[in-house]
Fold this protein.
Amino acid sequence: MGKMKEVKEMKKTQSNLVLKEINNTANDVYSSIRKKKAPELKMPLRALSNVKYDPKDGFFELLGKMKERTLTASTIKTFAQTLRMMAHAKNIVESDDITTKREMYYISKNWAEAAFKEQPESDTVMDDMEAMMMVNREQLGFIPEEKGGEVAGKLIVIDKEPDTGKDIRIDCTKFGSGAYSIPISVEHLKFETNAKFILAIETAGMFQRLLKHNYWKKADCILASMGGVPTRACRRFIRRLSDEKKLPVYVFTDGDMYGYANIYRTLKVGSGNAAHINEYFCVPQAKFLGVTPQDIIDYKLPTHPLKDVDIKRGKDALKNDPFIQHHKEWRQALEQMNKMKVRSEQQALAKWGLNYVIEKYLPEKLKNPKTWLP
Amino acid sequence: MADKEMESKEEVPIAIELAKKQREISVASFFEKNRHLLGFDNPRKALLTSIKEAVDNSLDACEEAGTLPEINVEVIEMTENKFRVIVEDNGPGIVKKQIPNIFAKLLYGSKFFKLSQSRGQQGIGISASVLYAQLTTGKPARIISRIGKNYPAHYYELRINTQQNKPEIVKEEEVEWNKEHGTRVELDLEGSYQKGDQSIDQYLKQTAIVNPHVTIIYTNPKAEQIIFPKASEEMPKKPVEIKPHPYGVEIGVLLSMLKLTEARTLQSFLMNEFSRVGSGTAKQICENAAILPNTKPNDVSREMAEKLIEGIKKTKIIAPSVDCISPIGQELLEKGLKKEINAEFYCATTRPCAVYRGNPFVVEAGIAYGGQQNAEESVKVLRYANRVPLLYQQGACAIARSVLNTAWRNYGLSQSKGALPIGPATIVISINSVWVPFTSESKEAIAHYPEMIKEIKLALQECGRKLASYIGKKRRINFESKKRDYIQLFIPHVGEALKELLKLNDNDEKKVEESLAEILEKSRGKLEQVEAENLEYDEEFAKIGKDYGEEEEDGENERGEGNEENPE
């Protein structure tokens, strides 16, 4: 019972901090208006151009560039929407409730002409708001629709029952052909494991194959399916698990620009868009296992020609992504792929037999860190 | 005339036969057959033309005498298609001897031989009306004229002898007349009275617009009296008579001038017979023409005259003096427009004096835009020549052509190729010249002289630019006011959100909204008011000539358009 009280207290303190932040922002706006000065809302600019990468810290850090939303004719609508959403956030934090991103969009329909036309509009205002207060949107009571990712293997997750706060032990080896779903908030989870590493996998298809053949048993590991670009919860889960249990993290994606510059990069150092919270939502210790451009050659994988968007994505990453720019190995890999003009999927390994990935590819790669990318 | 051109057959004597039929044709009988050339094509137009000729003459006479014109116009319906027209002025009157010639001899007048701006030009107009009256009703014209308090008033009944183009006096007597001086013309003629764009009412109204010193008292066939009172006590500047300007003089005219001159040398000929030519310029012309300045004018051959014209073209000569032209003026043009059209924007311009065929002329243009005008229709074009409204043959007129050829899209009106622009606008163009080049004696359309078309276009472009800047400004302001509405829309949301966030009371919320409005207002400045309020607009006045008779409307349009198709 003491523990439960502690958790509640902690949560309350956190809520109070958020409420204070909301209150300060609103008060600033209010006093500006009373002084007949155009109020402004300041927030960090959320873009790759406003982050730096220092491998010592291991994640994208915000530079000082700020975005100011001064109240003018062209900004008044968004200004009003931001304040109205803030008022809603205050209500749900106070009543310890949550609102999904989609629900937020529908709630705005009560605001007559200030309603959001499409959900992306309300998502952007939400992102702005969390950046403005330098908090995670979950702290404001907003939660995403998307799933956090799936986990299977040698891991016991200790969660709490929502109503009683009693511990629940979840054994991730006991999901059979299914898997454990990472919840939206992972801060309260505790872990028990004797696995040797975590393997983060891009596609659900590859995850299924490894599950089917009990790869986690063979390799003594935990499998995590990211399902594309990892969600914040997924990143945070892997980070906490890795930090607390001192487990290395290996990442296994398709051999293409998206796998490298979007999925892996975001998992390891975070994103430009959420730069204000990258510190907690990244896994700096992650290493890239494959599929590298060199793997495509070494394993004679079937390929697809690069599309214009792939080439552009590669060029953009080389030009604008501080992470890629920092690592010579990554620059070379992207340039190599651009020269090869082809990409390859994880599942292309099936060309050499369905179990090839388990029996040959992964063991070989794990044995040979020289073939990894940083 | 066509007889002369008849084919001759192989046998010779036929020419002798034909010669019997060949004789001089009197101008009067020529016009008897070709009355459309004078503007008497149909009964409706004939009625208007007779009034127009009489009024033009009256105005010219009054202005020449320095009297503020006061003109009485009365149209009485005698039978369904017979009308009595009475035009009476307070002008200087006409000396007894001249009355028959002026009213009953074609091509008799004072204006043909001088170069100064006046309404009448050839001396055809009023006598043609007399002729038309005589042809359609057989009744003589009845004239009263008096030249002063101490002189009697003379009454004449006149006919034209069309064979000889000579006046026939039917009756002549001294009468009592309540006017100290002035002239009264009374004609009975066949006509048709209709309202609308090409009506007497419209003509008189448009005359009043550009002649604010004139009072017109008009009694229409329904015995309703309309008074157009004078709006100004000031006479228009009296145009000065001038000699022709060398630029644009044509070979034939030059040759006859050389024959008729009293000058002994070419140099003095140039100096005496042309305006803006001093001794220096005269010598320069001769030098450029490679002709000796002391050549006798009579000795100048056709070839030399051609060289002389080349020489004139090469010589820089100052533009003719503007004295001879009395334009309406930008201000008056604008004022006139304001009185007639309730628009939101007015502009006008007066071009500097230019020359065609040696005749100086001044083009003026004005635009009234927006307001109650129809935005879906073609713009309305009002044409004036020497302050006389032109109501017919718009299609054949250089003015309309120039309007068509101006790129109105640059100025904010829509326009399809070769058509009048579409938009809520009225365009006024006025040509003022010592000699307005009409396409025919009926003086309905202006001939297409390139110099004139160029000037008209320049005037239209000047107005167009002003219009474009107005339309642009209006657009910006509309945009701005939309933006303000937008601001007003969202201010309450900011207020409500803050109220919720900070638990404000209603009063504080209200203060927030007020302050916000103030902040945003301050940063955007005051909203400009562009639409001018038109204090000059006179609704009653604007209505005149516009109330079409219901059943007549169709016929009127048909006839109007028929004219456009056959301009000559």
About this structure: Chain B has a mean pLDDT of 82. Residues 475-524 of chain B form one domain. The radius of gyration of chain B is 30 Å. Chain B touches chain A through 26 residues (CB under 8 Å).
